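If you are new to this repository, start here. Below is one unmodified record pulled from the training split, so you can see the exact layout before writing a loader.
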Amino acid sequence: MTNNIAMPASSGVKTWITRWRWLLLAAVLLAAAALWLALHGAQAESASPAKAVMTVTMVRPQRDNLALEIDANGSVAAWQETVIGSEANGLRLAQVEVNVGDQVRAGQLLARFADDTVQAEMAQARANLLEAQAAATEAEANGRRVRELGGSGALSSQQISQYLGAEQTAAARVAAARAGVQTQELRWRQTRVLAPDSGMISARSATVGAVTLSGAELFRMIRQGRLEWRGQVNQDELAQIKPGMTVKVRGINGEIVTGSVRTGAPTLDPQTRSALVYVDLPVTAATTAALKAGMFAAGRFELGNSMAVTLPQQAIVLRDGFSYVFHVGADLRVNQYKVATGRRLGQRIEILSSLPEHAAIAAQGAAFLQHGDLVRIAPTATATSSSLPAQAVQRLLLSDVHGMRGPR
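And here is the target side for that same chain:
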């Protein structure tokens, strides 16, 4: 009985020990598996490529024919401004025919003085001329008779001299009277103020009823309506500007007026080292509407054209007052380069700095990049429309990056 009871207890212990051995083995295997997965997962993670920051498009620097220009500031002035004054002295201004802004032609009546006094004096001068002519006619007849009787002895030599002298005196009085008439006629003409040339009235000081002195200013006129732009340039720019060059002057509301260089100043301002360039502007209604004498205006001298290396505007990033571009390297990481920019041609900008050889420049998306960022190249329309698999398209784009040639 005793043996029969003890045998089951020994068998239960063995079974319990066996179970724990299997549990311990399973735990060891699970720990080993977890360690193996952890190690191989870390290796796989370290072996996987870094994630690109963004997708960008690439552009190539290209050579374009750009205009050579010089920007300058200056003022608009009258080509010649004529001062029209009064030649009459002490006469009352009776009529004013024109006002500021009027276009006038040569010989047109601008103003008229009261001529009553002048008319009366002219009539008196003409009467004096008639009286002198009558006296001269009588003296001439007497002189003719004296010359006929000179050899007969009827008249003494003294009498003959008196008659001949009276004839000359009468002729002189006629000349004086005739000069008086001409003087009064001139005064009468001076009562009418006429335009000396065609042009535009720019100022008026004439007032009806005013009594003016000789030489007093009545009007100012821009001769022939011609304006000129006087641009300020430095000594280096002055050497590049030649007569006949085209100049674009920006007028009111941004309107552009095209002129041509007439001449440059022979001297420079010793304080600013700048010189004036005189530009003739066309006499048109558009010029009159866009430009006014005395206004400030910006202009641009067109010197010609030259070849330049350009990039699209979106490929140039402005930061802290400087211009930068991002060169895409063979490892698809970008390198930031500071560049100097120049002229513009539409949406393209001239690059004055030298770019790396085989330059591939990030364009769209460049504004969000930092130096060293990893990027993904956006497929071109040709590559995406082909039947190549994605990996083949990426290899094609990479080969395009490596094979890009920089600006020459």
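Two things worth knowing about this chain: The CA atoms of residues 74 and 231 lie 4 Å apart. Residues 1-8, 44-48, 381-408 have pLDDT under 50 and may be disordered.
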